[in-house]
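Hi all, posting the design record for the shared folder.

TITLE: backbone redesign
STEP: 1 of 1
STRUCTURE INPUT:
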């Protein structure tokens, strides 16, 4: 982090203050956070997590600070000196002097006239012509798929783009496919790819030991079932959103 010079559009930015604190702790080889440290850049829920153990959690605070920095870099509130990707918003704009010069010379190349009223007048004429053309075609019954009934436009139903034979083939193919429980399929895909190893502990980065519980949590989130209803469906005791007993893949 010391290799970058971060700048902010805010005065006394708490995110930059937190970064400076972390850099100083690293230089001084100190692990614990001081009694007072910046918290204004963190969400309320994150603050509770950092202070949940009775004393500030340094690794969690550092992770939350870097996450906040990422958000601020993406929004442009914070930029990096000398960076092409993360520059001040003003640098993405044309310099004011160049803009004035191009505007006076009618060289802005906007694709529309520089005179707004002239453009609006032209668009008004185009719209008026096209509306009159639409009204004439509607009265004459020349609109394909649309007819005028008692002063109201009635649009004919759209025809399906899928042939009847294709729809019949789809159901025929479905009839030959075996019935597979989604829980078994999820467990089988995990055995191929090992994706459950990507769900690591936030603090220790350890790989999950109870794969069945992780797969149950993934399925509960994907189906909007929720951890409690998933626990009830799989005969799992759920307290504060955490399983006390893990389900087997067949009962996830």
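Okay, here is what came back for every position:
SEQUENCE:
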């Amino acid at each position: 982090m010391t290799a970058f010079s971060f700048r902010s559009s805010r005065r006394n930015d708490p995110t930059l203050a937190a970064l400076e604190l972390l850099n100083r702790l690293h230089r001084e080889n100190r692990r614990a956070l001081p009694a007072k440290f910046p918290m204004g850049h963190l969400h309320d829920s994150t603050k509770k997590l950092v202070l949940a153990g009775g004393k500030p959690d340094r690794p969690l605070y550092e992770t939350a600070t870097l996450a906040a920095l990422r958000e601020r870099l993406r929004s442009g509130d914070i930029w990096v000196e000398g960076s092409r990707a993360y520059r001040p918003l003003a640098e993405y704009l044309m310099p004011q002097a160049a803009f004035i010069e191009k505007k006076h010379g009618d060289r802005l190349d906007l694709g529309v006239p520089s005179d707004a009223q002239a453009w609006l007048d032209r668009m008004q004429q185009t719209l008026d012509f096209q509306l009159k053309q639409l009204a004439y075609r509607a009265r004459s019954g020349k609109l394909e798929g649309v007819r005028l009934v008692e002063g109201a436009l009635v649009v004919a139903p759209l025809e399906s783009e899928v042939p009847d034979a294709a729809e019949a083939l789809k159901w025929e193919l479905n009839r030959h496919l075996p019935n597979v429980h989604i829980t078994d399929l999820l467990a089988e895909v995990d055995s191929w790819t090992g994706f459950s190893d990507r769900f690591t502990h936030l603090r220790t980065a350890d790989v999950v030991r109870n794969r069945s519980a992780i797969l149950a949590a993934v399925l509960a989130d994907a189906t909007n079932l929720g951890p409690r209803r998933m626990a009830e469906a799989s005969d799992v005791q759920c307290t504060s959103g955490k399983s006390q007993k893990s389900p087997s893949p067949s009962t996830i």
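COMMENT: The mean pLDDT is 85.
Let me know if anyone wants the other runs.
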